[in-house]
Design brief:
Oligomer: single chain
Number of strands: 0
Radius of gyration: 47 Å
GO cellular component, one term: cytosol
GO biological process, one term: intra-Golgi vesicle-mediated transport
Main location: membrane
Subcellular location: Membrane
Structural class: mainly alpha
GO molecular function: SNAP receptor activity; SNARE binding
């Protein structure tokens, strides 16, 4: 065992440890770069989602306004239908009265 060189053995262990440390440092640097890119992508996604949220809220407000307008239009149409019905009833009553008056006049003329 006298041939065993402790300095060479320690040097190899130090070199191996240094290589492991360098690989670990490179891996950490890659992981850090990936984390930065992921964070950047996350910010972009959040910004895009915020824009889409605002767009959806505007669309929802427009739909609510349209729904309110449709409700008002429906009420106006119902009122118009009611008025048309009343006008038809009044017109029928006028025609019936004219027929009765005409029949009365004809009856008076022949009597």
């Amino acid at each position: 065992m006298a041939d065993f060189d402790w300095n060479d053995h320690h040097r190899q262990q130090v070199l191996q440890g240094r290589q492991i440390l360098e690989r670990t440092s490179a891996s950490l640097a890659r992981s850090n770069q990936i984390a930065i890119e992921t964070e950047h992508t996350g910010h972009e996604v959040i910004n895009e989602l915020e824009v889409q949220r605002e767009s959806l809220l505007r669309s929802q407000r427009r739909l609510e306004d349209a729904n309110n307008d449709l409700s008002r239009s429906g009420a106006i149409i119902r009122a118009m239908k009611r008025n048309v019905l009343y006008n038809k009833l009044i017109l029928i009553m006028i025609i019936v009265m004219e027929v009765v008056i005409l029949a009365g006049l004809i009856a008076l003329k022949f009597m």
